[in-house]
Fold each of these.
Amino acid sequence: MALALAVNGIGPLAVPAGATSPTVSVTYSNSWVEPLAVHVFGRVHNDTSDNVALVRVGLNLLDGSGATLESDVGWSSLDVLAPQESAPFEAVISPVPINYSTFAITGVSFTRSTTSPYHTDLPVTLTPCPSGAPADICGSVTNAGQGATTVEDVHVALTFTDTNGVMVGQNEALLDSTANDTLAPGDTGTFSVSRTGEPSYAAVLAVAEPSYPVDLNPASLDFGNQSVGIASPAQTVMVRNNGMRDLAIQNISAPADFTRTSHCPASLPPATSCSVDVTFRPSAIGAQTG
C-alpha cells in the first residue's frame, strides 16, 4: 500500500502543472454542510505509471482551535484508475460533531493493481424516468466490450455539478433488482437513483464499472523447460482482494501436472493479500498450459 500525505488545509492539493509525482494527487472542489453531515467533494488523479485501486481520501473535521474532532475517508467513484486517469470522490462525516468549524484533507492512500479498468466498455445512457417512479435519474448500461468478457456487480457512479461545473453531489447506483447484475457482451441493464433532499444540479456525469474483487500478481506463470517427472521450484502468485467486502475463497484448483499450495484463508478481508505456491511436474514431453 502506498500513502501520500498532503498538508492540512482547505483547497487544491494537486501536483503543480508540469511536475511529476509517483503517487495519486487530490484536488478539493466543493463542500456543503447539512444538519446531520459534512460533504466534501473533489477529484483524485493517478500520477503513477500503474493501474491503482482502492483510492481513499483522508478527512479530518476540526474545531476552531484546529483540534481534530472526527476522521473519516472518502472513496474514489471508480474502483480502478488507469495511469493519468482521474475520478471524483466524496467524503461524508455524519453526524456533525459539536464545535465543528472547518475540515482538512489529510492525504490519499491507494494500492497498485494489475487489474485493467473496464469502464470504457460500459457506456451509460441516461433516460427519462417513468411517470410516477420514485426516482430522479434513470438510465441503462450496456456491456460493449469487444471480447468475451462477462462483468459482474456493475455499479454506476453519478457526479452532479452546478452551472459553473462545480461538484455539488455524488451518488452510486446498482443495476435494478429486477435486472441481472451480470452483463455478458451485448447485454444491457437498467438503474435508477433518488436524490431527495440533496442540492440541485445543472449536469450529471455517469460512469459504469464492474467490481474488481480479485487481483493476481503475477497474472500468469512461466515454468520454462522442465524435465519429465521432476518437480520445478515453486512459483508464487499473490491474491489480493480489491473489493469492498470480504472475499470468500472456496477452492483454488490446479490442472494436471501442476500442484498448488494455498496460504489463503476461507475469507480474505478487503485490501489484504494471500499467496498460492505452484509447482510444475510434467508427466510427458510437450508444451502444457493450465
Amino acid sequence: ISGRQGGNFAPLAIQGTTLHGITYTSPVASAQVKSSLLLAGMYADSPTTVIEPVVSRDHTERLLSFLGAPIQTQGTAVSIQPCERLHPAHLKIPGDISSAAFFIVAALLVPHSEIVVRSVGVNPTRTGCIDILRAMGGSIDLINERRECGEPVADLVVRSSNLTATTISGDVIPRAIDELPVIAIAAACAQGTTVIRDARELRVKESDRIATMTRELKKCGVAVEERDDGMIITGSDRLRGAVCDSHGDHRVAMSLAVAGLCADGDMVIKDCSCIQTSFPEFLQTLNQLKQ
C-alpha cells in the first residue's frame, strides 16, 4: 500500500497479492473494520478471525451465511474460511432503523401521533434505540415479525408518549451509536435528566456529534452539559425555535428537524443539503407525516 506520507494518507494505491488469513483483535467494536477483514478473508489462503471487545452490527455475517459462505460466530469472535464462490440469491433489503429512528422519535414527541413504519430491520445489534426509547416510556410495538434473507424484520407501531429521563451507557451504545443525536432530542423533551456516556465515538463521526448537538440544543433553550464521552441533558416541556447549523452532518440536520416539531417558533437549519448523504426523501416524508 503506497500513498502520501508513507501510505498513511489518501490517495492510496494498493498492489494486489496473495492474502494470508489472520486473527485480529480489534480495540473497538467496528462493523466496518470487521466486514472489510471478513470479505478479504474469503480470498485468503487460511481462515481469518476477527475478535471485538463487544459484538458490533452483524449484517455482513448474516448475509455471507445466507449466501453460503463458511462463517462461524462464537461470542465476540467471527471466523471465515476461504471461499471462492457464493450462492446466487434474490435479496430483499429491510428498511434502515437509523433512518426510521427520526420518525419514531417524532411520533413519540408530537401529541396524539400514531404511525406505522413498515419493513424495518430489527437486527438485535441495531435495536439499541428501541430499547432506549422504551426505557424512557416510549410506546413502540413490533408486529408482523419475520425473517428475510437472514435478517429479522418487523413493522413498528409508534404512539405519542410522555417520556422520562434515563441513563444511556455500556453495551447499548454500539447498538445505538448512529441514533444518539435524535435520542438526544427525545431526552431534551423528556421529564428529568438523561445521562449519555461511553459514547466518545460520537466525536469522530461526520461531525463531533457531542459538541455539535450540545451547541445546537443550547440554542433551543435546553440545559445540556458536554462531557468527554457524552452529554447530560435536562428535559424541557417545550423547545425554543432557533437558527441552527447542521455542521454538514446529515444526522444532526435530521435530528434538528425533529426538534423543530416540538419547538415554539420557527426552527431554521442551515446546510441541509447534507441530508442527501443518507436520506434524500427525508424532508418530503416528514412533511407528509405532518399533514
